[in-house]
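Today's session is about reading a structure prediction critically. Students often jump straight to the picture, but the first step is always the sequence itself: look for stretches that repeat, for charged clusters, for runs of hydrophobic residues. Only then move on to the predicted structure, which in these notes is written as discrete structure tokens rather than atom positions. Here is the chain we will use throughout the hour.
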Amino acid sequence: MNGLFTLLPEAVVATAADSKDLILSELAALFAQVYDLERDAVLARMLEREELGSTGFGRRIAIPHARISGLKRPVAAFMRLESPVEFDSADGMPIDLVFGLLSPDGAGAAHLHALAAISRMMRDERMHDDLLEAPGPEVLYSLLSNVIDRDAA
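Below is the predicted structure for this chain, in token form.
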């Protein structure tokens, strides 16, 4: 999709996940299905990262991320939650949007650049509102890809 990470249309979903554990489990399954990764390995790495501190970014957004062997470049997935969920966020607010990122084990700077790009995009209040109001995954993907492509240009 851009120079920082890949986000495929099938990696953008809406979900009824209603707990932090279920969100991470569904996110790992989504990464596994879309990017042909091992679900349990993805979940284990994301849980290890959560033990260091919540990836609840604040402003009702979580950005679970991890490094995993076997990837050639960072990959992303996006989930819109049907209802807000407690996620131990920095600001104490429940989340309703989840933007996951997996990067290759050795991708130090690339991982940080991809996280920064996602963070910038998700801080935009209008974008947040548009993502919450989008009627389905196709529109969610379109909104995300338009901003990602614009920012990469």
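Discussion point for the tutorial: The longest strand covers residues 75-85.
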